[in-house]
Amino acid sequence: MPISEDLSSTLVNVARLARLAVDPWWIISSSAVALHGVDLVDVADVDLLVSTIDAKRLLAEVGSEFRRERSDRFRSEIFGAWLGNALVVEIMANFRVKAAAGWRQILPTTRQSVQIHGESLFVPNKDELIEILHMFGRPKDFERAAKLGAL
Predict the structure, then answer these.
(1) How wide is the angle at C-alpha 91 spanned by C-alphas 33 and 57, nearest 5°?
(2) How would residue 141 be classed by pLDDT, with cut points 50, 70 and 90?
């Protein structure tokens, strides 16, 4: 799997932290594309989508405060950054994206396991991840979706 050492080491830490989660969780965005096997050089962080309860638990475990995150395009009921890894891990719950019909919650219905150094990580399946990336609507997301679709 063509992922950098920084991403690999961060994902191992995420998998270990996520053992504390009680609800399903997913890696989304560029890190998930990389976990599907797309060679990406622009993975800047790891996006971890969890339930509200788990977001509070995981952020407390790593000593990060949480807040609501709001932008013109994205919103999270709970958002916090876990620093101290090779890459920043953004932990989010009740994550929504502004779509043509209004705000839409990103809550994957598929959950595919990927192994990294003996640790299990979960991503949406390929088709659902492509759909999510298209909802994000940014040029870099369309590019990632195209690369993923070409696999």
Answers:
(1) 135
(2) very high
The 10s digit of each residue's pLDDT in 68-120 is 777 889 999 999 999 999 999 999 999 999 988 899 999 999 999 999 999 99
Strands 67-70 and 74-82: antiparallel
The C-alpha atoms of residue 115 and residue 25 are separated, in whole angstroms, by 15
**Cβ-contact 96, 74 below 8 angstroms:** yes
Query: Packing angle between helix 52-61 and helix 5-18, nearest 10 degrees?
Result: 110
The domain in which residue 84 lies consists of 5-149
78 touches 56 (CB < 8 A): yes
User: The CATH number of the domain where 57 resides is what?
Assistant: 3.30.460.40
Whether the pLDDT of residue 19 is over 90: the answer is yes
